[in-house]
């Protein structure tokens, strides 16, 4: 864990929370004492796609920090900017998911009424904001800080 910067830790933690939130209820309705819920896994654009972007962010950090001999492909923009853009994209997609009501209950089809937003969606939104903040912090680190942070010098 000493090899990770604050931005790396924020991205790792937020990605884990986002993964967990995918399996929690995002929308639902209670009808006759029975709960009908849809999870984050029921949505590609706002569930699976943000997860794939978060995995790319985590994978790049893990390869850079824990396998420094591995050469990643050259990109037209620095990795910090890629992290920031991916984090912002994830946050925008989740804000849109929150604002645009759903009437589809996973496996049951359209209900014809707007469903209640559930705690899983709010947790996913918090994780998405965390990924955006982590991406911003990663961009602020710059390319000179891509190597593992060094500790205090030890005298010989």
Describe this structure in words.
There is one protein chain. The protein is an alpha+beta fold and 156 residues long. It has a single domain (6-144), classed as Butyryl-CoA Dehydrogenase, subunit A, domain 3. 53% of the residues lie in helices and 12% in strands. It has helices at residues 6-21, 44-66, 79-99, 119-141, and strands at 25-31, 34-39, 104-105, 109-110, 116-117. The chain has a three-stranded antiparallel sheet. The protein has a two-stranded antiparallel sheet with strand order 3-4. The protein is elongated. The two termini are 25 Å apart. Residues 144-151 have low confidence and may be disordered.
Keywords:
two-stranded antiparallel sheet; 156 residues; alpha+beta; elongated; single chain; three-stranded antiparallel β-sheet; Butyryl-CoA Dehydrogenase, subunit A, domain 3; 12% strand
In short, what is this structure?
By secondary structure, this protein is α+β, with helices and mostly antiparallel strands.
Task: Give the topology.
Elements: H1 6-21, E1 25-31, E2 34-39, H2 44-66, H3 79-99, E3 104-105, E4 109-110, E5 116-117, H4 119-141
Antiparallel strand pairs: 1-2, 1-5, 3-4
Main β sheet profile: 3 strands, antiparallel
Strand content: 5-15%
Radius of gyration: 19 Å
How many independent structural domains? 1
End-to-end distance: 25 Å
Mean pLDDT: 86
Number of strands: 5
Could you spell the SSE succession in H and E letters? Answer: HEEHHEEEH
